[in-house]
Amino acid sequence: MADRTPLVAGNWKMNTTPAEGVALATALAAELPGGQDGVEIVVCPPFTHLEGVAAALEGHPVAVMAQTIHDQAKGAHTGEVSAAMVLGTGATGTIIGHSERRAAGETDEMVAARVRAALDAGLFVILCCGESLEQREAGETEAWVKGQVAAALGVVTRDETDRLAIAYEPIWAIGTGKTATPEMAQETCAQVRAAAAGFIDADAVRVLYGGSVNADNAAQLMGQPDIDGALVGGASLDAAGFATIVRAAA
Fold it and tell me: Which residue is catalytic, options 70, 98, 100, 131?
């Protein structure tokens, strides 16, 4: 895995109340009291409890990040949240371009603008890409994910490589219980890394796999040479199970 430090991020999506989020973060800290040697750990709660979760994890190695940001710093954007607002909660990064947001209308251009805004504000970015089942069955996976990666990284410079990671999430495997085989995941993560090479240091950037990652399949997935960690959905809502995935990354 070259010298890439594994990264395991838990995307809580639209789950947990503020009190439940703090309880989950506290339970995770108890499961991993010193973090995990050699692994970076992240949780991504809803906006409403970024501040509470960040406070609960203060002094603990688990980092807190948002699930998206808006590309504008401020203004008449009802319901949106800026990078500065996220930073003000104690969070240090954000997911951008998750397939669930792309499906709701987020375009490649919007993703690129949000990546640039996040980096300019000092946030770490987990950039998402992935294909639908129809695209995979039509043999379009490589072209599709390379297009997504190129569109987003076109606004990034090579010296910003260490300020982002790329998460490959096949849309057909998100929340379905279906998972790409380790071989399929490795093949596409290698393609993602190759696509990144035109813009950033591809040997240094971390490529994560996401899509129904759980305690049972994590070690095999993250054992692949081009998979440097995981973006975990539902399984991150259980502190013990998420801790098991983190340990598997080590």
Answer: 98
How many C-beta atoms surround the C-beta of residue 191 within 10 A?
21
**Which of 66, 65, 1, 70 has its CA nearest to residue 250?**
1
- pTM to 2 decimal places: 0.97
Please state the separation of Cα 136 from the chain's center in Å: 21
Q: Which of 40, 100, 131, 169 is catalytic?
A: 169
Contact (Cβ atoms closer than 8 angstroms) between residue 50 and residue 95: no
- pLDDT for 2 equals 62
Annotation says 20 is catalytic: no
All domains of the chain in start order, with CATH: 7-31+38-249 (3.20.20.70)
Length of the chain: 250
Of residues 90, 147, 91, 84, the one with CA closest to residue 117: 84
Taking a C-beta distance cutoff of 8 angstroms, is the pair 188, 230 a contact?
no
Judge whether 169 counts as a catalytic residue: yes
Confidence of residue 1 (pLDDT cuts 50, 70, 90): very low
